[in-house]
Write a structure and sequence with these properties.
Layout: E1 2-10, H1 16-33, E2 36-41, E3 47-54, H2 57-65, H3 68-72, E4 75-83, H4 89-95
Antiparallel strand pairs: 1-3, 1-4, 2-3
């Protein structure tokens, strides 16, 4: 299993506010299933950051495609990168 950092950037029209409750419910389910490690919005309200654990990027892309944000087309961009947690409390926790 690998870790993936995902950056969401919202469209400027702020329609994501309407979809946010469904998005958060979806993420809660992913967290309970063990796929989502950490997530939260940027304080600028321009996007969010998410950390996932998955077998590969294809699995992450499937999870992101099912996100209510994707269905509502409120994302201007989505960046996915494999991430290596190296230092800090979270890194120590993830590496076990």
């Amino acid at each position: 299993m690998a870790y993936y950092a995902v950056e969401y950037l919202f469209t400027p029209d702020k329609r994501h506010h309407e979809v946010r409750p469904a998005h958060r419910e979806y993420l809660t389910d992913l967290q309970k299933a063990g796929s989502l490690v950490l997530s939260g919005p940027l304080t600028s309200d321009t996007g969010g950051l998410l950390i996932f654990q998955a077998a590969d990027e294809a699995e992450i892309r499937e999870l992101l495609a099912a996100d209510p944000y994707a269905h509502a087309q409120v994302l201007a961009d989505t960046r996915v990168q494999e991430w290596n947690p190296l230092l800090g409390y979270l890194a120590e926790h993830l590496k076990g």
